[in-house]
Amino acid sequence: MRKLAIPVLVVALALMLMSVFVIPEGERGIVIRFGRVLSDNDVSRIYEPGLHFKMPLFDRVKTLDARIQTMDGRGDRFVTSEKKT
Questions:
Q1: At residue 17, what are phi and psi to the nearest 5 degrees?
Q2: Around 31, how many Cα atoms within 13 Å sit in the side-chain half-sphere?
Q3: Hey, is 45 helix, strand or coil?
Q4: Nearest Cα residue to 53 out of 18, 28, 26, 24
Q5: Is residue 41 scored above 90 in pLDDT?
Q6: Which helix (H) or strand (E) holds 53?
Q7: Residue 29 CB contacts under 8 Å (≥ 6 apart), including other chains
Q8: pLDDT, averaged across the chain
Q9: CA 17 to CA 11: how far, in whole Å?
Q10: Count of C-beta atoms within a 10 Å radius of residue 78
């Protein structure tokens, strides 16, 4: 009985450690299950920094930079009802 308890304990501990993930400060996380983003009512779950849980072996976590990001691009042209830009 003792020989069986140690491997079971090791497997249980490994599964527990695989189900925990940490999002560092300055980043956000998205959980992907089977190649699709997890969502609630068509709104993606975005995880804030901290300790979170996921399903081991099924979920992957992608972290994204959450700092201010700007894009320098050309301004769009708009046409008024008088056909003037």
A1: -70, -30
A2: 21
A3: coil
A4: 18
A5: no
A6: strand 50-53
A7: 21, 23, 46, 47, 52, 61, 62, 63, 64
A8: 85
A9: 10
A10: 7
